[in-house]
Amino acid sequence: MDVIGTALALAVGIVLGLLGGGGSILALPIFLYAFHVDTKPAIAMSLAVVGMSAFIGFLTHWRQGTVRLRVAIPFGAFAMVSAFVTARLTHHVSAAVQLALFTAFAFTAAIFMFRDSLRDDSATGAPNDVEAIRFTPVLGVQALGVGTLTSLIGAGGGFVIVPALVLLAGVPVRPAVGSSLLIIAMNALSGLLGYIGQVPIDWPLVGSFTGLAAVGAVLGTRFNRLVPQRRIKQGFALLIVVLGSYLVARRLAAL
Fold first, then answer.
1. Which residues touch 27 (CB under 8 Å, ≥6 apart)?
2. Residues ≥6 apart with Cβ < 8 Å to 84
3. 199, β-bridge pairs
4. pLDDT tens-place string over residues 27-36
5. Could you tell me which of 181, 209, 200 has the C-alpha nearest to residue 26?
6. Helical (H) or strand (E) element with 42
7. Which of 58, 67, 182, 191 has the highest Cβ tally under 10 A?
8. pLDDT of the residue at 22
9. Residues paired with residue 196 on neighbouring β-strands, in sequence order
10. How many Cα atoms within 13 Å fall on the side-chain side of residue 168?
11. Using CB atoms within 10 A of its CB, is residue 145 exposed (0-12), middle (13-18) or buried (19+)?
12. What is the spatial distance between Cα 244 and Cα 105, in angstroms, rounded to a whole number?
């Protein structure tokens, strides 16, 4: 891995450490345009970064007691089934369609992140009765959709999972974030397993990239308190828009 690749892998982890998630959305563009990996293998390799990123964030929330296993585990289990099956069937979906879905996802994620940066940080929801938290059939359907999305585009979809847990399962916002990270780690792993044997995966690159991203996550966590979260989110949202615009420009130039 060259100097630029090393710096980009560290950047993914630093974003993760600063925000507690989200940095993995950078992985696919980096694999595509910095390491020149084909689209489908790049998506599969991104799932490894997604899973690692989410798991590191989950551990932080777990230590703080902000994870609700009674809803996260069944949601994650449904998502894992869908992610694995989708990954096995992606040879029926063109790489161009998968990249277009990722681009749409990136723009949507940027909008949600910018909106979240404008929200009152104190409005995180009061702790509620754990017994009231429940996994419902509607959440099961949503979980299947999340697993499908994750395998198709190589990103976690936390901005979809968190509102679902809050609105449909009665989980307060902060525990919903912690629970979503466990869910993302579960379905990213399942999606990666589904891709194995379907596309070539550069395991040494995956290993070195995720290792450097993990180091970056530790560094980002140390600097987390030095930069206002609102500014970090706004800056990252802008970065996602720039990356999404670059992807669109590349696709138009290829037509």
1. 12, 45, 46, 49, 50, 154, 209
2. 147, 151, 190, 191, 193, 194
3. 196
4. 888 898 889 9
5. 209
6. helix 39-63
7. 191
8. 66
9. 199
10. 18
11. middle
12. 9
